Amino acid sequence: MNEKRTIALAVAQLGPVHLRDSRESVVKRLLQMMREAKGRGARLVVFPELALTTFFPRYWMDEQEAQARFFETAMPNPVVQPLFDEARRLEIGFHLGYAELTRDGRPFNTAILVDPSGTIVGKYRKIHLPGHAERKEGVPFQHLEKKYFQVGDRGFGVWDTMGARLGMCICNDRRWPETYRVMALQGAELVVLGYNTPSYNINWDEPTHLRTTTHLLALQGNAHMNGMWVAAAAKCGSEDGFHMFGSSVIVAPTGEIVARTLSEDDEVITANADLRLGELYRQNIFNFGKHRRPEHYGLILERTGAGEPLPQPPID
Asked: What CA–CA distance (Å, rounded) separates 185 from 155?
């Protein structure tokens, strides 16, 4: 293997954030983990989806109330400014998920990428929104992302920053192969993401252990098939009695888990990600330029849902 080219990564898992918890108290926790990440040599720390508040899509309320209580109208704002100031002081970048209300009143589930100077260099808005918009009866909680958020409008971006080519996605995006492939086709070497995933499936009686199994499977398989590193940060634990699983991880292009959290509380994991490792896969097994055949993939864009089999030519 050629000489290593590394980025020191940290994933900062966040334990429960309750309805009573203030944003200020959450920011203090994030600052503590940022300092720990820096102390362990990290250049970039990944925080979770909707990191500043509880996972409010589990509650039914009107959209105006949700926006007033849980959305940010500016970033940075006075409450989160200490994160930007500390990043600049420590010379460490960070990824942060939050609920965004734009100047023209559009609500998004958003993540930003901030470089070590404290400058926002990338923004992503969640595209694959799970759950429902209507109120479900007879379930222990709601999953109302389709009610509270619009589908992201910025596509899957990739940015050259902090010595790497970085992409972002959020939570349910991680389960869709198109997410990673679009970024891989832009040369992404590392994808960072946050998630809040309920341990209980309200749609069918799914064994709890499968929730974590499929989570890891999606991250490991897509990291390998796209020759990239993936760093995923959970907000987890029991928020006011509603449990979300942890298993925050850093995954290598080999598909192997390099680091994984042990708890469902505030916890920092780190790894020195050798970006050249991904190049080996992108130049050989998954050399897109040599081996992809887009002329046979048209159905991916033509159909949203599954349909009838395509007509086949006669068998010779």
From this structure: 13
* 108, amino acid identity: F
DSSP state, 132? -
For 245-300, write each residue's pLDDT tens digit. 999 999 999 999 999 999 999 999 999 999 999 999 999 999 999 999 999 999 99
Query: Which position among 38, 72, 86, 126 bears the catalytic label?
Result: 126
- The string of DSSP codes covering 193-233 is EEE--BSS-SSS---HHHHHHHHHHHHHHHHHHTT-EEEEE
Q: CA neighbours within 13 Å on the CB side: how many for 40?
A: 20
Give Cα 72 to chain centroid, integer Å.
Answer: 18
Dihedral angle sign, alpha carbons of residues 76, 79, 85, 91: negative
pTM: 0.96
Per the residue annotation, which of 38, 49, 86, 147 is the catalytic one? Answer: 49
Q: Does position 86 have pLDDT exceeding 70, yes or no?
A: yes
236 is catalytic: no
d(CA 222, CA 156): 15
- d(CA 185, CA 48) in angstroms, rounded, equals 25
Under a CB-based contact definition with an 8 Å cutoff, are residues 114 and 121 in contact? yes
pLDDT, tens digit (0-9, with 9 covering 90-100), for 187-237: 999 999 999 999 999 999 999 899 999 999 999 999 999 999 999 999 999
Tell me whether residue 171 is one of the annotated catalytic residues: yes
Residue 73 in tokens: 């109208």
Q: Which residue pairs, CB below 8 angstroms and at least 24 apart, start in 20-26? A: 21/54, 23/52, 23/53, 23/79, 23/80, 24/79, 26/51, 26/52, 26/53
Whether 147 is a known active-site residue: answer no
Average pLDDT over residues 40-55: 98
Rounded to whole angstroms, what are the CA distances from 44 to 18, 216, 290? 27, 22, 33
Catalytic member of 72, 147, 169, 171: 171
Distance CA 251, CA 260 (A): 9
